[in-house]
Amino acid sequence: MSNHPAYARALVVGVVSFAASIAAIPPALAARTISLNENGSLHLISKQGFTLNEQGPASGTIGGTIYVHLKIASSSTVTAEVSISPRGGSITGRATASYKRGSTTGSFSGSLSISHGTGSYANAHGSGLSFSGTIQRSNDAIAVHVNGRFSQ
Question: Where do the domains of the chain lie, and which CATH numbers do they carry?
Answer without folding.
Answer: 33-151 (2.40.350)
